[in-house]
Amino acid sequence: MKKLQYTILFIIFILSYSCEEFLEEEPITSLSSSWVYENTDGYQTGVNALYNLNRAYFGGEGQQHQGIPMLMSDLVGVRAGFPAWVYYSPLYVTPTAPSFPINYIWTQHYRIIDRSNALIASSVNFGEDIKSHEAEARMFRAHSYFTLYRLFNNLHLSLEPTTPENAFDIEYKVAAPRDIFDAINKDIDFAIEQLPWITSEIGRWTKASAKHLKAKVALWQSYDSETQAEDLDVDSYYQQALTQSEELINYGHYDLARVSDVFGSEDKPSKYSEENLFTINFDLELEGNNGGGQKHRMGTMTTARYQELKGVVEEDALGQGLSWAMPSNYLLNLYGNDDTQRRKDKRFTSYYIQNYTYNDIASLPGGVQVGDIVTNAEQKLSSEDYYRRLHPSLAKYIDFETTATTWSFSDIIVYRLAETYLIAAEAAHLLGDNDTGVEYLNQIRRRAYDLPITQSSTIDLSAAELDIDLILDERARELAMEGQRWYTLKRTGKLIEYIRDHAGHEPGFTNLIGGELKTDAQENILPHHINFPIPQKQIDVMGAPEFQNAGY
After folding, report:
1. 432 Cβ partners below 8 Å, 6+ apart?
2. Is 363 in contact with 310 (CB distance < 8 Å)?
3. What's the CA gap between 190 and 207, in Å, rounded?
4. Could you tell me which of 214, 219, 209 has the C-alpha nearest to residue 279?
């Protein structure tokens, strides 16, 4: 049996930045396995290496994989760039596709799993004081298995580390979904027991992020009967999701931040707020190192090429726009039927860049001044160039703290409390308690309109109105392009329906403001596309063709 090849990079951390402690690392060239697995300091360094490996998914020179699944959904308009990484053309997604990085996604998560396995197995060499670090390793293993299952479905389940002694004796077989989720839940339960609620080192797993993930897993299992334990009914999963969410919401330390503070701004550059549950750290000061200095292109991918407008040059915060993917017209129209109505929702003005301003006196078109808002009246852009240069951009990955232009060192918020509220809303609804469910949903809406979140308001929805489609719409307004949408639509059985209805753009709005975005997904997605194909390279390594998903 062939051995899967894993590259292990170990790093060490704990630096200080400003007044806060960040989870950051500086590299060391070589470490012995005995030091890592038999020495307390070494064990902690091995756990810290998992954070670096997790960050590496977004970092580095690669581009394609960074948008999967962060951007890939029904809410994204695709103009250019790599044609498959936002899934506008399912025809590109094949077991051997050169332009769709399924092999990278698969191997990167199994690297994390294998390194986590080694650390978890070696925890017997230590006392109780290592349990919180073991819990972090278990969170990474659980999170990677949960991610892989939601993307690929057919997985090999291994909870033991790969060693020279066993590498050629591994028997690869498709694991039962129930067994995969039993392992996921045991890891998360261990983490909830051992991790602290809060940490001074931003970026670490905590009890709060573990409870959030537990709620997400329970909600997934409530829809997917193959993952459910034999002794639990569906209502127990609804209740688990609600209980974990409410314990987190009611703990007191975490809170919904002002909308304008969630992803930072020029006035408040940092993306750190009381709403963050789990964040991947990046830092320009470590550029060139293998730790937090890794960089990504999430910001430039989702920013219009505004710098190509007449009278405009690159700005420090926005950097270089590539305009590969953007909020679709369907998404923007969820905030209201016209600009006046949309702007009442603070998410519309905080999560997106609506306007670009003239800032280059040397190339100003006639009749405008530096500081004026750019409009198409003076630019006279074609339909294609409108989407390329003037369409609204996503602000969630904009780097407000550095002046790097091509690359971004903006931290990526993986999980935040707003989603916890929306999980609670859905779980309560599924339990038949629409009064509780709609209140959680309305608290998110009131925050969006800058209203007291616990007081009834005119923008409230009623319990009678609450259903899954309403919840999905609110999740879109709140969490668009944060990497949750694809999984949510798949979980609720809405993926094919929503992609066919409006992926790329909303029918009827194509020419509302000019131009057409890609509609390949609407035209080509088929039921089997809910699962990615297993990479052919991995099937060849495993010698197990039965892993391949139906339809490929």
Report:
1. none
2. yes
3. 10
4. 209
Domain chopping of the chain, boundaries: 1-60+102-195, 227-279+411-483, 284-395
Residues contacting residue 361 through CB under 8 Å, at least 6 positions apart: 370
Rounded Cα distance between 11 and 381, Å, is 49
- Rounded to an integer, what distance in angstroms lies between the CA atom of residue 73 and that of residue 322? 19
CA distance 1 to 256: 51
Instruction: Tell me the pLDDT tens digit for each residue of 30-75.
Output: 456 778 888 899 999 999 999 999 998 886 555 667 788 888 889 9
What are the two backbone dihedrals, phi and then psi, of residue 296, each rounded to the nearest 5 degrees? -145, 175
Nearest to 408 by CA among 289, 294, 290, 271: 294
Using CA atoms, how far apart are residues 210 and 16, in angstroms rounded to an integer?
A: 25
Pairing of strands 201-202, 352-353: unpaired
CA distance 225 to 234: 8
Architecture of domain 227-279+411-483: Alpha Horseshoe (1.25)
The tens digit of pLDDT for each residue in 276-315 reads: 999 998 876 655 443 455 788 888 889 999 999 999 999 8
Token code pair at residue 145: 């298995």
Residue 113: its pLDDT value, please? Answer: 98
Q: What is the architecture, at CATH level 2, of domain 1-60+102-195? A: Alpha Horseshoe (1.25)
Residue-wise over 134-167: b if at least 16 C-beta within 10 A, else e?
Answer: bbbbbbbbbbbbbbbbbbbbbbbbbeebbeeeee
Question: Do 1-60+102-195 and 227-279+411-483 share a fold?
Answer: yes
